[in-house]
Specification:
With 198 residues, the chain is α/β, with parallel strands linked by helices. Helices cover 38% and strands 20% of the residues.
Length: 198
């Protein structure tokens, strides 16, 4: 079974829901399965608080073994000032060993995000997540305009990856176009991964 690692950080749940939709898309491709993983929050040193070794709810924290054994990687993060959130960046900054050994080289990679406003940096956040994947030697997978919802969406969804417009108070649920594009990204990454394995 080809395993697609969906690694994300979600603070209020919108990015997590997008991850679940992408996982459903992966599951629609015979021979592929999704593994959901998250990263702990980053806290200031003077804060004194620590994250539990295992999350209270949701998927487990990502391990080096998850990176080594996956066949593809899809990164997700809410937007923070037009780029990925600090917890995901902090995790990626700790993958020097994987970079040196080529653990992810040649594997497909993709990205997804959630923003509170329409022009809050969906595309720049996706690009900020794709840059480390390129440095790792991954093969970038996006959403082509052959996916009809890329042209019709009035909320989330871009050629650079799946996205969701959550609203300033998180009041917007994932709409039909966002859902379709999230699943399409999962299917596309899974399909390309299986083709590469032949």
């Amino acid at each position: 079974m080809t395993e697609i690692l969906i690694l994300y950080y979600s603070r209020h749940g919108a990015t997590a829901e997008l991850a679940r939709q992408i996982a459903r898309g992966v599951g629609e491709i015979d021979g592929a399965s999704a593994r959901l993983r998250t990263v702990p929050a980053v806290r200031p040193i003077h804060d004194g608080a620590t994250e539990p070794a295992i999350p209270d709810d949701g998927p487990p924290f990502c391990t080096r073994d998850d990176l080594a054994t996956c066949s593809a990687l899809i990164l997700g993060s809410p937007t923070r000032f037009g780029q990925m959130a600090a917890p995901l960046k902090y995790f990626l900054d700790g993958t020097s060993n994987e970079w040196l050994s080529g653990t992810l080289a040649g594997k497909p990679g993709a990205a997804f995000t959630s923003t509170s406003t329409l022009h809050g940096g969906q595309e720049s956040t996706l690009l900020s997540m794709l840059l480390p994947l390129l440095h790792h030697g991954m093969l970038i997978v996006g959403l082509p305009f052959t996916e009809p919802a890329v042209s019709s969406t009035r909320s989330g969804g871009t050629p650079y990856g799946a996205s969701h417009l959550a609203g300033t108070r998180g009041e917007r649920e994932i709409d039909a176009d966002e859902r379709a594009l999230a699943r399409a990204l999962g299917r596309r990454v899974a399909d390309i991964t299986l083709r590469l394995a032949r």
